[in-house]
User: Fold these one by one.
Assistant:
Number 1:
Amino acid sequence: MLSVDFYKSPSKLVGITVKARYQIIRLFIEDPVGLIYKALDLKLQKMFLLYFPPREVVEDPDRLKLLEESIDRSVSLMHKNILYVYGLEKQDNIVFAVMENIEGNSVYELVEARGPLDVEEATQIAISVCNALKYGHSRGLRHGDIRPKTVFLSRAAVKVFGYDFGLLVKGIL
C-alpha cells in the first residue's frame, strides 16, 4: 500500500510501481504545486510523467473534486505546445495524473546553464507559449502557472504543462 509519507521525502517513490503499471524512475520536478516524476509504463514500455498534486488537495474532498474536473477538461487539450494529459489515476489514498513525457529542459534550466536568451530565441518561445494559451483559452481554460520552470523546450516543440490549465485559477492549489 502506498503512503502519503512520500510528500515528506519525494525520493521515496523512486523505484516503486504504481497501479501495477508505472515504475517511477526519478523525481523530475519538486514544486509547491506538486511533484512530477518520470515513470516507465511497464505495459507500453514508454516513458510518461506522473503528476502528484499536493497532499492538501488530495485530502480535501472539495479541492479533489475540482482537480478531477480540471484534469478531465485538460484531457481534451490537443495542441503541439501543450503536454498531453491522459487522465487521473488513483491507488489507495494516492492520486496522480498521467502526462506525456518531455525530453528537454525547462526555460529556467536553459537560462541557468547558458545565461539570458537572445531576442530571437525568446521571441520564438513566447510565440509558442502564446499559441498554447490561446488554444486553451479558446476552450474556456486558463493556465494560471506560466513561468520559466513550466515551459519546456524539446527538439520538436516548446511545450507547457497541460495539467496546469485551470488548477490555480479555480483555487485548487
Number 2:
Amino acid sequence: DTVVEPYNATLSVHQLVENADECMVLDNEALYDICFRTLKLTTPSFGDLNHLISATMSGVTCCLRFPGQLNSDLRKLAVNLIPFPRLHFFMVGFAPLTSRGSQQYRALTVPELTQQMWDAKNMMCAADPRHGRYLTASAMFRGKMSTKEVDEQMINIQNKNSSYFVEWIPNNVKSTVCDIPPTGLKMASTFIGNSTSIQE
C-alpha cells in the first residue's frame, strides 16, 4: 500500500466530479484480490494488474473499434448510465478472468458469462455492489452469440435480483454485442455498473 494513494483519491475527486463525463473506478486492492483469489497468483506483479485493466478497458471501448449487431459508443454509454450529471462513477468488471499467458480451455456460455460478470468478486473496485443498489448498468458481450440470448439473460438477472435495482428507473440494463472476441477467447463480457455502493 502506498501512502499517497488516499491523497490522490481525495484530491482528485472534486475535479473528476465537476469536469469528467465518465469515470471507470479501478483500485489496486480489488485487482490484487482478483489476482490472489480468482487467478490464484502467489506474487502478482504490476504486469498482472495491468493485464486485468487492459482487458476491461478494451472491453469498454471495443464497440468504437469493431463492428457489432448491437453497437454502442461512449456517448450512448453516458446517455444510458448517467441519471444525474454528478453520478458518473462506474464500477467495472470482466469475464472470464484469466491470468496472463493462460488459455481458456472450455468455451463459456452466455449464462455463465453473465453470472460471472455480475459477481461481486469480478468487480475491479473494492466497493461491494451488494451493499448498494444499481441505478443503471451496461453489459458488453464480445464474440459470436445471439442477441436474443443476451437479452433473455439480462431480463433474467433483473427479475432474480430486482431488490438490487432502483425501481424508479425501468429497463435500466443496457446490453451491447460486438462480433469480435478478445485475442485468445471465444467469448468475453465487460460489465459497467452505476451503483450507490461506489460511495464506500
Number 3:
Amino acid sequence: VIQDVDKKGLFTLAKELSTVSQRAREGKLTAKDMQGGTFSISSLGGIGGSFFTPIVNAPEVAILGIGRHKMQPVWNGDSFIPRLMLPLSLSYDHRVIDGALGARFITEINGFLTDIRKVLL
C-alpha cells in the first residue's frame, strides 16, 4: 500500500512503487504494509494477460486491471494507423462509486495515457 497518493508527485510515486514491488517480490512485505488501501492496481500484462476482470479486494472500493499492450490498427477517418493499445478494466463497489463516475475515471486515465503532458503538469 502506498499511503497519501493524492499528496505525492509522479516521480515520488514511481520510486515508492518500485520499492514496494521489490519488497513484494522478495517476500518481505508485512501485514502493516498491506493495510489502509482504498484502491488497487493489478497488472497481468507482464505475464501475457491480455484482458481480465479484477475483483475488488475488500474493504477497498475499486481495482484497476491492466492488461498487455499491443499495436493495433485504428481508423482515423482517412486511413488505418498503428496505435499502441492498453486494455484497462475497472471494477468498483456500486454502493460507493456510481457507474458514471467510474466511466469518467477511465476516460481521465485515457487522457493521461494519450497526452503525457497532463501527467507532468
